[in-house]
Amino acid sequence: MDFWNVGIPIPVALAIVAALGYWIGRRNRSVGSDLVLRSYRDLKRARAVASELEKIAWNVRQSLAKHHASVSRFKDRVNKLSDRQQEAAWKELCREAEDVLKPTQQLATQIANAYDEIRQQGANLMTFTEVRTDPLTGVSNRRGLDDVLTSQFALMARYNSIFSVTMFDIDHFKLANDEHGHLYGDKMLQELARLFDESIRETDCVARYGGEEFVVVMPQTDLAGACMFSERLRALVEKRLTITISGGVARAREGDTAESLVARADAALYSAKSAGRNRVYTHTGAATELVPAEEECHACVV
Fold it and tell me: What's the mean pLDDT when you consider all of the chain?
């Protein structure tokens, strides 16, 4: 820009340039700090995924080596039995087959388990891809959430495992947006997502469901545990941020789909909102109930 052509005095122009430089530098430092923190958390999660995949591969490799030795012995015995009388050879073959059958079945079960575990870790890896990441907050987006829920339901169907979800919503978010602007609202979303990401376990998944709503998926967590975590997180947000949140907790049940599970969590969230906000409700399967304070949360119905 030619400041002299538009009639801006040189001292004013220099002040403007200095102010712009300060603002850009401050913004870059802030963005850089956020990226470092996010990268550190992502690296920690990635290491956990890599460790799990390595453990799965090592266990399968060990079992395959052991089974290969067992099969080789079986093959040698079969070759030796071919020179003996038919009846005696048949009885001996039955005994040898029985010896190799059990480890073969165990290996088949282990490989099936490993497939499901790899599928779950694959879902965790998907959360690092851009198409499954919310660009504003850096957590998973709706597509990433769908992948994680699909994986959890598959594990529940095969192994009768359990998991729970919590849907959180920022209280009075629209009002804050209207009063302070969308940039302020974006900052609220980023701060909340960062706090969620720092507070969950490495096996959990936090996703931006839409607008100011977030969903946390908690594998191997019953309703009581999910209640305790959600109430603790609500209190933490109230203590550390300038906002409050409401939450709705639900546990996956037999016959559930992703839609029905999220719908129960949403119904519990609606109850929390209707009851005055800044609280957590749980859906027991029949009705919604208030989640008590953390010290009383063990009373949640499972």
Answer: 79
